[in-house]
Write a structure and sequence with these properties.
Blueprint: E1 11-12, H1 19-23, E2 27-28, E3 32-37, H2 43-54, E4 61-65, H3 71-78, H4 88-91, E5 93-97, H5 99-121, E6 125-129, H6 131-138, H7 142-158, E7 162-167, E8 185-194, E9 197-207, E10 216-222, E11 225-229, E12 247-248, H8 253-258, E13 263-264, E14 268-273, H9 279-292, E15 297-301, H10 306-314, H11 321-325, E16 329-333, H12 341-355, E17 359-363, H13 365-371, H14 374-378, H15 380-392, E18 397-403, E19 424-433, E20 436-446, E21 456-461, E22 464-470, E23 474-475, E24 483-484, H16 485-493
Parallel strand pairs: 3-7, 3-8, 4-5, 4-6, 6-7, 14-18, 14-19, 15-16, 15-17, 17-18
Antiparallel strand pairs: 1-2, 8-9, 9-10, 10-11, 12-13, 19-20, 20-21, 21-22, 23-24
Length: 502
């Protein structure tokens, strides 16, 4: 068969932001679909979003309810969502209650009544809510139920209707249930409680005729209805890095010299250090330098509110309020404590589209992790990798801050073992010299080229972070307890002591 001989299957928009991407472009027209999950997962809302996105007077929708929530009560709550269009109720969408038919005539009566209504109005969308109720009330054999589902599917497909059956099923019931074999699409919605957080997820367990994104995807119910976040969101349309990428200033001439001319565009930079070492100030200087160069930016904060962040920047002479008002800077505050990395990426990419941002600051990774639901913290490193790859792949330069617990016996670069995810690392740390606490900075890694190997002292002033000269005359600086070079030489050359009598 040649490509010309193949039947073209039209894809319909679901009306659920993010779901079309997961499905591979939309839902196949005339498909017979089953949406399953426990109460409260969003099954009814998903079906209604699809209806309101597609129903027209020429392509009407029928919504059959069976021994479930009365249509009047359901509509009372569903109309609170922004997708709900009251004008479509009279012209494009009809609700029909079949409870009395099921009680009096069983499966045969349900099938006959649906056939009568379909023939009368020729709908292009049909929903049966809940078909699990039909199955339970009918009390027929497994074969009878399977025959009913198959006949219903054949009926609605022959009338060229896109169909949804909604039902309450547990995950364990999905694998060996013959009811699901007749469906073209099988959507599983789940809802779990993780400590004090509630997490909703979606899995496309089956979809005939087209490739969907496998795995579990985050769902959130908002004032707009359901929103889906693909676990591969942003992984397409990535750009290849150029060998001689443009260098971006860090907002400090001395630091730009240490990094070999600035941070290569499209890199991911990690600034690690303990509390009070100036990580956030360096991040703010990086954003401010970009705005001065005509490069809009985004700051994702998790530990303080945007107004507080702007006020603190102003105390160091950095004006973030003006570019924020002008649309050149977006400050995103995300801390709901049941967040997913995919939702964060979605928020950031939305801000990128609005501002045209070239630079992003994540302040901080520790705050980011705490904002996630407990289940998402387990996969934090893998999810962070996907997010960094997605953003740097479209040319965004990322600066992330990470608070470290200071050690005086080693120099760790990351408490998350994520240093391999970053292209560049700048390490800040305290040292104690003659009873005085001082700060040093070093460029540990620059994947894009040569960088300075110097260890330089720096100070935090009203103008921000100011680098001093190379700290000389001391050894073992990175331990945090340096020794003067001559003392270190004496210690190193001191012959080993022998025990008496040896």
């Amino acid at each position: 068969m040649t490509p010309k001989d193949k039947v073209t299957i039209r894809k319909l928009p679901t009306g659920v932001p993010g779901l079309d991407e997961i499905l591979g472009g939309g839902l196949p027209e005339f498909s017979f679909n089953i949406i399953v999950g426990a109460p409260g997962c969003g099954k009814t809302t998903l079906a209604l979003q699809f209806i309101f996105a597609n129903a027209t007077p020429e392509r009407p929708a029928l919504y059959f309810t069976v021994l479930g929530e009365p249509a009047l009560k359901m509509l009372r709550y569903q109309q609170q969502y922004s997708f709900f269009d009251v004008s479509k109720l009279s012209s494009s969408i009809r609700f029909i209650n079949l409870s009395h038919v099921l009680v009096g005539r069983g499966l045969t009566g349900i099938l006959e009544e649906i056939a009568k209504e379909v023939e009368a109005s020729n709908p292009k969308i049909v929903v049966v809510d809940s078909f699990r109720t039909v199955v339970r009330r009918a009390q027929g054999s497994e074969i009878d139920i399977q025959i009913f589902i198959q006949e219903l599917g054949l009926l609605l497909t022959s009338w060229e209707a896109t169909t949804f059956l909604l039902g309450e099923y547990a995950e364990a019931e999905l694998h060996d249930n013959p009811v699901f074999t007749v469906s073209d699409g099988l959507f599983w919605l789940s809802q779990t409680v993780e400590r004090n957080s509630v997490v909703r997820k979606l899995q496309i367990m089956k979809l005939r005729g087209q490739g969907s994104v496998p795995g579990l995807h985050t769902l959130r119910i908002t004032d707009s209805g359901l929103q889906a976040f693909s676990r591969t969101f942003g992984m397409v349309n990535r750009k290849s890095k150029t060998p001689n990428a443009k260098r971006l200033s860090m907002g400090s001439v001395a630091l730009d010299e240490m990094t070999g001319g600035g941070i290569p565009e499209g890199d991911s930079l990690l600034i690690a250090g303990s509390s009070g070492t100036g990580k956030s100030i360096l991040a703010t200087q990086f954003i401010a330098a970009g705005i001065s160069a005509g490069e809009p930016g985004i700051i994702a904060v998790f530990e303080e509110r945007p107004d507080e962040y702007v006020a603190r920047a102003a105390s160091f002479g950095l004006d973030l309020e003006t570019p924020r008002k002008d649309g050149k800077l977006a400050i995103i505050y995300l801390r709901p404590l049941d967040l997913s990395v995919d939702e964060t990426l979605h928020e950031i990419l939305d801000a990128v589209r609005k501002t045209g941002a070239k630079r992003l600051v994540i302040d901080s990774l520790a705050g980011f992790e705490m904002a996630l639901a407990p289940g998402f913290r387990t996969d934090f490193r893998e999810s962070l990798y996907r997010m960094i790859v997605s953003l740097t792949g479209i040319g965004i330069t990322i600066l992330s801050t990470l608070e470290m617990v200071e050690s005086f016996v080693e120099l760790p670069f990351s408490s998350y073992s994520i240093s391999f995810l970053t292209d560049d690392i700048i390490r800040l740390r305290y040292i104690e010299v003659e009873g005085v606490l001082r700060k040093i900075m070093m460029v540990v890694k620059m994947r894009g080229g040569v960088h300075s190997k110097e260890i330089r002292e720096y100070s935090i002033t009203p103008e921000g972070v100011v680098l001093g000269e190379r700290l000389i005359g001391y050894d073992r600086l990175i331990t945090g307890i340096p020794q003067r070079a001559e003392e270190s030489a004496l210690y190193d050359n001191d012959p080993p002591k022998h025990k008496a009598g040896s």
